[in-house]
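Progress against Task 2.4 (sequence-to-structure conversion) is shown through the following example record, which the project officer requested during the mid-term review.
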Amino acid sequence: MGNFSWKRNLAVLWIGVFFCSTSYSLSIPFMSIFLSDDLGVDSHLEIWSGIAFGISFLASALISPFWGSLSDKYGRKPMLIRSGFSLAALYLMNYFVYDPYVFLVVRVLQGLLAGFVPASIALVATNTPEEKTGYALGVMSTSGAAGSIIGPLIGGVISYYYGNRSAFLFSAAIVLVSAVIATFFVKEQVYDRSAVRSRVRDDIREARSNRAFVALMALTGISSFSVMILEPLIPIYMLDMGIAKNSASLTSGIVFSSVGIATVLMAPRWGKIGGRKGYDFILFIGLLGGGIGNILQFLVSGYIQFALLRFVYGLFYAGVLPSINAMVVQVTEPSFRGRAFGLNQSVSQLATMAGPILGGMLGAFLPIPVVFVINGLILLTAALLVKRRRLEARVGAARAGETPSSL
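Structure tokens generated for the chain above:
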């Protein structure tokens, strides 16, 4: 593919992932209110909200390897189209739901039919010149971060002025845009669809034989878990700092957004540096900075300092996931790459689901600043393992085609 094609794909898929991430995060500010006011959930609202939030991640984690297998046989673009149009229809269905159990079913279907983001990453990783892969994946990570920043803001505004259900209409519309641009503007290499599709069990066995890839999946899980473990705690922490209850949600949103803004600013730069100095170096720096940043949060007492520290933490942590994705490309064969990103997505989704659950449990028994320290120590341990286990050496060996036992 020529330079124009991979750059066009990158631009088009950036827009698609941005819209897709925006549509997903749009409902976060008002999901509990929607369950209560629109669906009539009067008791155990916290439990209902937790299940409604987490059940999509669980469904997505279970099905991602299957979609990855299909993408390796039929291509990533068909997965983009399938996911985009399916999600648009399901977001539209939310507008017509009046029963909380039906709402949970729709949330499960959203998880089962998702996959736009990992398919986009896999397509960019596979159809970009190798020397540009780190930069391209860094740019792609900014689209999800930007969508997660703007989504809750748009959702809150639409919900306030036009009602919760109207926000679901907006979600459906922008995901439909993602599906349309994927259909007409994304280009992909021609696939040999006569090949036999692999079984997920065989894919897992093949992945387990690649020790470098297993290490990268573990780091993906740690990274996703590290971000999500704090999600239920930061609004409570804002109240502990003396923020008024009626503004705690807004302040928490600003704190969360500070990390996303840092990612948008820094991730492409980390990708370029990784292409020159090695992605293991960027991964180590990102984990090290993320760990120190979390531990330092133990020391702050004001929300302004806390937000600034979270922003600095985000500048370092922005290099972690793009580096992992770039290294996944390096350690896997092109024919296995869709399945590799599908399995990696499963690990990420499971960690995303487990993070808030464990974070809430730890926050109930420990002071919240102690949870920051625990989180920081986990990241520092991961950074030391990257350094001591010489992950780059394993990546190099995998690229050279050595047998799994020698990695």
